[in-house]
Records
---
Amino acid sequence: MVQRFEGRVAVITGGASGIGLASARRLASEGAKIVIGDLTPELGKAAADEVGGLFVPTDVTEADQVEALFATAVEQFGSVDVAFNNAGISPPEDDSILTTGIEAWDRVQRVNLTSVYLCCKAALPHMQRQGKGSIINTASFVAVMGAATSQISYTASKGGVLSMSRELGVQFARENIRVNALCPGPVNTPLLKELFAKDPERAARRLVHVPVGRFAEPEEIAAAVAFLASDDASFITASQFLVDGGISGAYVTPL
Ligand SMILES: NC(=O)c1ccc[n+]([C@@H]2O[C@H](COP(=O)([O-])OP(=O)(O)OC[C@H]3O[C@@H](n4cnc5c(N)ncnc54)[C@H](O)[C@@H]3O)[C@@H](O)[C@H]2O)c1
């Protein structure tokens, strides 16, 4: 494996599971020191141990905990070269606007959108001091497409992540800090399996829109994260980086 992250440090929120875990493994395999911030201590610690990194128990909705996460990375390993702000939730109470209550709306906004604001706010001063950095914020393909199977707060939160990332990418471009919004299509992770993949009918309703005819594997998203995090993406910033199996480009898909 090419060692694109030798001597670099990556902070990954939501690194205990799914896309975050696959990305921790991928970045570590290319030489990065990994710091995982996650709510779940057992899985988070296991993930960090597996990749020879550090686990910092973190609720990404709490400003002081987020600041401590990035400060710990600098204290322990010397820098924050990559911030993969990826923790997110998709609870069943977040559904049609007609049935979604304000509590569910607020919770999803806090975990999916406010957290990205807090993580970028905490990571940027370290990157400014270093004179470099790559921030990757996990949005979603639903930030650019509408779904009749609505999750209204989730979709709105990801739209917010997308436009915030674009603006930060523009604002900090001349400080050698890149900020991109990663927009995955549906991925085989616990989040998606819990939501609908275990129900064949609900899965089929979605799969028909995917030109490649399947959901992504977390490792395929992790490969894109590693690319965006690396110097191979040195001219890519403020982008909506779609890794979606062609969904957003499709009208009629193959039978
Ligand atoms: N799975 C998909 O199909 C898909 C598609 C597009 C975008 N996404 C996005 O990708 C990201 C990762 O999703 P995933 O599928 O890997 O999910 P996942 O459920 O497998 O992992 C999410 C992780 O985030 C952590 N987390 C949740 N709330 C937290 C909080 N308050 N503080 C700290 N950590 C918290 C969880 O403990 C978990 O480890 C999310 O932002 C999700 O919205 C997922």
Note: DSSP finds eight helices and seven strands in the chain.
---
Amino acid sequence: MYGFDGIIGNEHIKNHFKKAIEKNRISHAYIIDGEKGMGKMMMAKAFAMTLLCENEDDGKRPCLKCRSCIQAMSDNSPDIIYLNPDKPSVMSIEYVRENLINDIMIRPYSYKYKIYIVNNADMMNSSAQNAILKTIEEPPGYGIIMLLTSNMGRMLTTVRSRCIKLSMEPLDREKIKEYLMNNEHLVSYQADVAAAFAAGNLGRAKKLSTSEDFANMLQEIITLLKYIKDMPAYEVVAAVKRAEEYKFQYEDYLDILILWFRDVLLYKACQDANQILFKDEISIIDKYARDVSYNGVEEILNAIYKAKIRLKANVNFDIAIEMLYLTIRENLI
Ligand SMILES: [Zn+2]
């Protein structure tokens, strides 16, 4: 799906763009901020396509049929230019100079505007950011620059203050669930888990619900939780060793544990299987609800949050996870 109609949620941004087009008050520099997977690129593309669509009927833009729309849909529009970091995690001044600052001085090839979509713009180092200042302040009339960031705080204040800033908002869990059931053909229970997990991020939900890696990780964690009570410490250590392959996805790994223990807490309090996420594992959740005290669940959740902070600070994955599982085991009566 292309155009604004294909985007779920974030009405405030769609309305902003639609109104700007309608009133012909288009800014020349935008920042669209939001974490990876939130749909920044789709939004920027929808705006660019609408601006360049050759259909005269305002209500039907982008029309998805004209030459401009067809080129844009296959990323072949000569007047929509995509920029990406040219080095790992860095967009250099040389690259930005060549592909934006100098390039924007050349008139559009076919259409009314020339639109630059800068992906991961917050990876521009400060010299690159300083270099684009003048361009975003006084671009040629046809030039539009869209900076996509996942951490707007990394942009210089001077850059930020010259742009219209739009932030992508997380979507409702229900909306994500509905999308996954209709488009990815997940059953209700799977869609629940993926939606809860994605915390409002549709891209993440889609990725998780189709990822074999994620399904494996989920299964391994559940198996470990199932048997940990009766495992001697050395077996816990061995199991953690196997978990090492997930060290680059440690946030996902820990989020699964958080959701699990939230279920335990919920089930302890209300005994209602319909309320919990891991419905397929109700017998283990029930056992945990009986085996762990309220204080114990709190202690475990705190330990998970602590592990998250430690891992963010680059503490060894094995050590952090091992300590975590030992804390879980200690709290099982
Ligand atoms: Zn069109």
Note: Residues 53-55, 62-63, 65-66, 68-69 surround zinc ion (CB under 6 Å).
---
Amino acid sequence: MNKNNPICEMLNIKYPIFQGGMAWIADCHLASAVSNAGGLGLIAAMNSDGENLRKQIREAKKLTNKPFGVNLMLMSPYIEEAVDVVCEEKVPIVTTGAGNPAPFMEKLKNAGVKVIPVVASVTLAKMVEKMGASAVIAEGCESGGHVGETTTMALVPQVVDAINIPVIAAGGIADGRGMAASFMLGAKGIQMGTAFLVSKECTVHKNYKEKILKAKDRDTIVTGKTLGHPVRSIKNSFSRDFYTKEIDGHTTKDELENMGKGSLYRAAIEGDIKTGSCMCGQICGMVKEEETCKEIIDKIVLKADTLLKR
Ligand SMILES: Cc1cc2nc3c(=O)[nH]c(=O)nc-3n(C[C@H](O)[C@H](O)[C@H](O)COP(=O)(O)O)c2cc1C
């Protein structure tokens, strides 16, 4: 799996498996567990201010001596502070989500940080390649959290054909078959969110974890399309109500935005899985066991290797 793999060589990791940044969920504990298991763990910077992010980074440094990264949420009001902290703390890798990383590219690159943006289109993939991205994560709309419009199956090969830097596939991958399929599409690595969300080391509230472990293939819904930032989450009172209000013609965009505020926190931290947003991907129906990150990664690598050797 790792022999001559450009992602492993570039990032100095054992397996080309990223744990996706997940706001309120991907903290130093999850990130260090994934890195210790040979993948690339990522701390989600989300909307946290610089000092909170610094604490997470310093804690992760105590928990692992392997490379780990930070996922920068480009729409965060603290994004400038987060970029400074990443550079000061010498974090070797960042992934970026929710936008165009152009304004921060130079600073990060000058500090020696490898920037790997999440993209949902060929256009953005080409743009970030020109800006000097080290690789891209092509994320299909099967994934949990904020989604684009194109599926992983359609997006990955088109991005692979359009650029000359390595592509990591994300969205709908949770086992060795998904990893092998991604490689067949031309990806050099994978990123998983939902599969790691249910890992033993993930500190998300147990109600949330149980909800995902019990979920079936058709249990997710996409809301927020009318606001221009669609989100995939579990069907529950919150998401059904949101969806109804989106199409009823009586609810304003501001009211909808307010409804969404704090909803992931309610589910992930407070365990309110009725009125909170339980973001997760369509692959939720396949994640059935709470395993350690090492067990998840070892199993995936073994299966993918076997399939790819056939
Ligand atoms: C609960 C949740 C929160 C997420 N938050 C973020 C985030 O803060 N930044 C980001 O770039 N991606 C975020 N994502 C996307 C993941 O990093 C990852 O790309 C995605 O989950 C992959 O698809 P999968 O869920 O099918 O494995 C989130 C996903 C989930 C499930």
Note: The domain at 6-203+289-309 is CATH 3.20.20.70 (TIM Barrel).
